[in-house]
Design goal:
CATH class of the largest domain: Alpha Beta
CATH topology of the largest domain: Rossmann fold
CATH superfamily of the largest domain: HUPs
Distance between the termini: 58 Å
Structural class: alpha/beta
Number of helices: 8
Helix content: 10-25%
Strand order of the largest sheet: 12-15-14-13-16-17
Shape: globular
Number of strands: 17
Length: 366
Amino acid sequence: MGFYMSKKVMVAMSGGVDSSAAAFLIKDKGFYVCGATMKLYKNPDVGIHEDNRPCCSLTDIEDARNVAYKLGFDHYVFNFEHEFKIDVIDRFALTYLDGKTPNPCIDCNRYIKFGKLLKRARQLNMDYIATGHYARIDMHEKTGRYHLRKAKDPLKDQTYFLYSLTQDQLKHTLFPLGDLTKSEVRAIAESQGLLNAHKRDSQDICFVPDGDYAGFLRQVNKIPSPPGDFIDSSGKVLGRHRGLIYYTIGQRRGINLSFDSPMYVIKKDKNSGAVTLGSEEELFSDKMLVENVNWIPFDSPVGSIRATVKTRYSQKEAPATIRVDSDGNCLVVFDDKQRAITPGQAAVFYSDDMVVGGGTIISCLS
């Protein structure tokens, strides 16, 4: 117990059941605990009414504070609005403007939760931060490197969003929910009388709770998205579209054109403003380029490696061969063609339950 008492942990508390249960588990192990909630934006600034109850709302801050009070530790609120706008919201908007489809939750983890919050924790002489993510961390005895592993609950595993964690961040991070299922987490929260034991999970991007990304970009970020041409793979003009931000790879609904067979968005071109439509078969590719790759068990692989790869959070992993080019980018060649590989999304590499690394998809190749 003395070892644990010497360690100080700042728990990131969103106001939800996961982070609240994580805080209880950390405190129950004997760590010195404080809670921290990040104020990431003012609701009116992102077009949100308080009644929408997204995560990170004022109500959630109050829920986190109440849990901290009940569990008997201090609670802080840190204003990261400026950092969140630059590192998450603006990146989100610029990626759409570039004709790609971003995943802002990954940027939030990279720059805010495990960047700014960990820095703030160190300023307060904390040894670790802890979060309610469903993931696990261990250390390889021979290499001394920290590994990121999948959670026990495959339906809740969040390692896809955490691939960018560095060795230093992994060393100073705790994931107390990694060996638990969601039902077990809710049971823990209920047993401790926490007010959010049955609070529903947030499903959408926190600053776009209604899922209308195009509306957010147009109304809040004032992103220009002029109409352009729908074309087929040969360049033939099929009709007009509303703007690039309204479409993503694999989309079928919202095209508002009539064809003899189903047509899908297979490409977006920021330079010409054209959206290419094609058949279901044209959505499939067996190669892609990935940039800004973060490797976890090693600095960089030598030669080619085999791994299973996810190109979307909800997608099953697929076996592939990965080769690092001279510029540090990766060519990923799948054993079988994959559907709707989307530039801007994350590609995450796995070996069994271990995250090997991951990066951002630049393009898919035929």
